[in-house]
Amino acid sequence: MKLIEFYRQLFLETSAIFEPVWEGEDIPFGYRWHKRNYPLPEQFQIRDMNTDHPALMYSLILPETYLGTTIYEEIKRYPSEYELSIVILNRQIWLNATLQTDKLQDSLMGFLHHSRGELMNVLDCIIRLPEEAKG
User: Fold this and answer.
1) Measured at the alpha carbon of residue 108, what is the angle toward residues 103 and 109, in degrees to the nearest 5?
2) pLDDT tens digits, one per residue of 7-45
């Protein structure tokens, strides 16, 4: 069994118990799941990046209103054990937390919850919406 298959099976088993709302799909070089029961859509991926260990990526998909915020500057400065990044696609912002599995110190669901918490912390506590920046 390849390592990416191990993590896929682990995610399938644990998400069925703790977060059964994830919907999966196979993608080139890995697996992707979507979750839409939260105010913001979420995505989780396990990617084979041609390294010894697959990468885990958790994403929050933000609406267009976040395009005018300070999120770009803040995500660069936010201290995290994850690699944080932003991708803009179809007028939406994909706020990402990525970790190679060889650096994983939590369970797989622990990674999801911890990265979700960090990204929500960025949204709730750090960035300023355009109307807040004026006042």
Assistant:
1) 135
2) 999 999 999 999 999 999 989 899 999 998 778 999 999
From CA 58, how far away is CA 96, in angstroms rounded? 6
Cα gap 99→46, rounded to integer Å: 10
3-state SS track over 31-83 = EEEEECCCCCCEEEEEECCCCCCCEEEEEEEECHHHHHCCHHHHHHHCCCCCE
Q: How many helices and strands, by DSSP H and E, does the chain display?
A: 4, 6
Supply 17's token pair: 């118990």
Question: How far is 128 from 124, CA to CA, in rounded Å?
Answer: 9
Instruction: Give the pLDDT score at 52.
Output: 85
What burial letters (b/e) apply to 83-98, b meaning 16+ CB within 10 Å? ebeeeeeeeebbbbbb
First CA to last CA distance, the chain: 56
